[in-house]
Amino acid sequence: MKRDPDCIFCKIVEGAIPSFKLFENDATLAFMDINPLNDGHCLVIAKPHHPDLFDLPPALLAEVALSLARVARAVRDELAPEGLNLLQANGRAAAQSVPHFHIHVVPRRMNDGASLNWTPRPGDMKAIGQLAERIRARIG
Length: 140
Ligand code: DGP
Prior knowledge:
- By secondary structure, this protein is of the alpha+beta class.
- It has a single domain (8-112), classed as HIT family, subunit A.
- The chain is built from three helices and five strands, in the order H-E-E-E-H-E-E-H.
- It has helices at 8-14, 58-79, 125-139, and strands spanning 21-24, 28-32, 42-46, 83-87, 102-108.
- The chain has a five-stranded antiparallel beta sheet, covered by helices on one side.
- It is globular and about 50 Å long.
- The model has no long low-confidence stretch (mean pLDDT 96).
- The structure holds 2'-deoxyguanosine-5'-monophosphate.
């Protein structure tokens, strides 16, 4: 399994540093975030060390998604939040602080003050359409 000896999440996977584990299987691990945005904030990670989405094999992303679905339902059933965000950061510009692939599960309440939301503004339809064409061509 790929690992990085300097990675905090690899150390959590190995049990070298403690965590509040929620769920684990061969491919994935879920544990509580120690800097929670709200109560119940937890993380679902791939066990092997892949820094971001682009390094992560798609089949492993699918494994993370399966674990995520279980964990998110458990968080919902226990905390009954009014909403729930899944967040996933790639790169410093996206505010990724731990370069080991993970998805945040963040329970939300109305007016909880979390500054994740932006004000929707109408885009330029011509520019949106042109970008769609360019991205579509790359999906193939
Ligand atoms: P991100 O910024 O998206 O890479 O999120 C990393 C999260 O990891 C952040 O919310 C805080 C959390 N975190 C950092 N170090 C530790 C740790 O040692 N243990 C646990 N449980 N969470 C950590």
